[in-house]
Amino acid sequence: MKLGAARFVAGETLKEAIEQVRLLNKEGLVVTLDHLGEFVFDEAEARASTQACLDVLDAIHESGVVSNLSLKMTSLGLDLSKELCLKHMHLILDKARQYDNFVRIDMEDYAHLDVTMEIFDELKREYGKHVGLVIQAYLYRTVDDMKRLENEYETMNLRLVKGAYMESPKVAFPNKAEVDTNYLKIIDMHLQSGHFAAVATHDDNAINHTKQFVKQHNIPNEQFEFQMLYGVRPETQRELVKEGYAMRVYVPYGNDWYGYFSRRIAERPANAFFIIKNMFRK
């Protein structure tokens, strides 16, 4: 953490994370908290991850900070059984509904996509506005998945991302330009659907495209927000707030930070330079 991960991870404890959320809120930024962890293969670990999510919702409510919760269902035992994961999701969403908060289910690798959709559909029908999903632009099937979700539900809060997992060209666009094009396509599509769009990007082209599109189509600012990762382009995050846009920061915390941190380096190798530089600071 001292060698650079702290740039992207808001501490190892929930207390540290809540303090960072409080600081972000003071600058007009809203947050989604994520207790790091994925691919657990032990029921006790899955229960512990579930309890961590419940603790996050309690801490948000008790502290009064403006944040919701993001989670990965593999951390809740999805690889052990669908039923176990559903049991844990019900506990979490019961509490989110009690506090009138919101839980975002992160989309993971392609191998988990179908079961994630199945669980999400079941939960969406029961918990409505309190649960949302992430959609990845680099998958060929994304547009069809979005059309189904938008048509099937009265409200559909989606976080739109390009995608951060290594996937086969059989299921995902292998070319960055194709991913970028599809990303703009799904942004336009979801904004025009009338549903809430969380445009999760650090790409100036996508940000400017979104600004122009909502202005051209008279889409109110209340129908979308920008999202960025904690520690990535913080100046731009604050500029968007000053311009009057909602800006939500994805704030991860916890001991199991290595996988998340590694993906941030893989996505943008320049981040590695930051870490190397820190290694030689006194």
From TrEMBL:
Keyword check for Oxidoreductase, yes or no.
Answer: yes
Species of provenance: Tumebacillus algifaecis
Superkingdom of the source species: Bacteria
Q: What is its EC number?
A: 1.5.5.2
Pathways per UniProt: Amino-acid degradation; L-proline degradation into L-glutamate; L-glutamate from L-proline: step 1/2
Name by which UniProt lists this protein? proline dehydrogenase
The biological processes this protein is annotated with in GO are: L-proline catabolic process to L-glutamate
Q: Name one GO molecular function term.
A: proline dehydrogenase activity
Which residues of this UniProt protein bind substrate? Answer: 72, 263-264
EC primary class: oxidoreductase
Q: Which residues bind FAD?
A: 107, 136, 162-164, 176, 201-202
Q: How is the cofactor bound?
A: Binds 1 FAD per subunit.
